[in-house]
Write a structure and sequence with these properties.
Layout lengths: L3 E4 L2 E4 L4 E7 L8 E7 L6 E6 L5 E3 L7 E6 L4 E6 L8 E8 L8 E4 L3 E6 L1
Parallel strand pairs: 2-11
Antiparallel strand pairs: 1-3, 3-8, 4-5, 4-9, 5-6, 7-8, 9-10, 9-11
């Protein structure tokens, strides 16, 4: 079992930055690929980024060059550094753990989400 708790969301102006954190419980954190997804009001949940056990990273095109995913296996934390934020980045952001990929079905464990709001 893995429990995930996100933090770091908030309100920021367009062009600003936020860093999301996801703290994981359990001793098997390093064995999972960690992902970030987001869901805007009225829209389906969408993939944002993942980082594999070995540190390989992959991003959705809309955040490439602006967001950076990283992990600290010693602390059981995965981060999402979000720069140059845009109003369209407004969403609830979810952390997930699993076998990986860009599909929700690749992840069996989810956090409760943290709200990110970008004002124009």
């Amino acid at each position: 079992q893995v429990q995930l708790v996100e933090s770091g969301g908030g309100l920021v102006q367009a062009g600003g930055s936020l860093r999301l954190s996801c703290a994981a419980s359990g001793r098997t954190f390093s064995s999972y690929t960690m992902g970030w997804f987001r869901q805007a009001p009225g829209k389906e949940r969408e993939f944002v980024a993942f980082i594999s056990r070995s540190g390989f990273t992959y991003y959705v095109d809309s955040v490439k060059g602006r967001f950076i995913i990283s992990r600290d296996n010693a602390k059981n934390i995965v981060y999402l550094q979000m720069n140059s934020l845009k109003p369209e980045d407004t969403a609830v952001y979810y952390c997930a753990a699993g076998s990986g990929g860009s599909m929700s079905s690749g992840y069996g464990y989810w956090g409760q989400g943290t709200q990110v709001t970008v004002s124009s």
